[in-house]
Amino acid sequence: MKAFIDIDTQIDFVFPAGALYTAGAEKVIPAVAALNRYASANGITLISTLCAHGEDAEEFKVWGPHCVVGTVGQQKPAATLVPNQIFIEKDVLDVFSNPDFVPLLDKLGVDDCYVYGVLTEFCVKCAIMGLLKTGRKVSLVTDAIAHYRQADGENVIAAFMARGGHCVTVNAATPAV
After folding, report:
1. 77: burial class by Cβ within 10 Å (0-12, 13-18, 19+)?
2. CA distance 103 to 109
3. Strand pairing of 137-146 and 112-118?
4. pTM for the full predicted model
């Protein structure tokens, strides 16, 4: 079964006023919104990961406070919210740190993953590389991701493809039904 996986498209990362905004990250919002709407309208499982930190999260020693539970910055942009979205929270970069993630994929029979979101070198990398390790087919939607540093993002994509990952565009991921 196919699933779309929206990685950390949260206000603190994708809006200029966000605590850990990366220049240009807001440009992914329309693509993410389109992918999420497509998934919802076509009965495709949509899993959205969320950074969800307490006020004294260990990660703040490296990145500074962001995505504190209950704050505006932790929320997803309204345009990316759709019915039947499944949310997986995490307190570190790697979605695989949430013990419910793999059992959820297994329970739903997910074997074909389309991944997108922010940021390529960090949370997106953890998701795509981890999904490959589980033996699933993984497609990275390259026009629906944002890099922290362009060269580093491109290196992640090259490593992902070298390990058997696929790259697609929003148009390829959302064919007319």
Report:
1. middle
2. 10
3. parallel
4. 0.97
Residues facing 49 on adjacent strands:
7, 88
Task: Answer for the pair 111, 136: CB distance below 8 angstroms, yes or no.
Answer: yes
Q: What is the pLDDT of residues 144-167, one digit of tens each?
A: 999 999 999 999 999 999 999 999
Is the Cβ–Cβ distance between 41 and 163 less than 8 Å? Answer: no
3-state secondary structure the chain: CEEEEEECCCHHHHCCCCCCCCCCHHHHHHHHHHHHHHHHHCCCEEEEEEECECCCCCCHHHHCCCCECCCHHHCCCHHHCCCCEEEEEECCCCHHHCCCHHHHHHHHCCCEEEEEEECHHHHHHHHHHHHHHCCCEEEEEEEEEECCCHHHHHHHHHHHHHCCCEEECHHHHCCCC
* 156 CA to centre of own chain: 15
- Structure tokens given for 140: 């990275």
* C-alpha distance from residue 145 to each of 4, 14, 166, 167 (Å): 13, 11, 14, 11
Residue at token pair 């013990």: 99
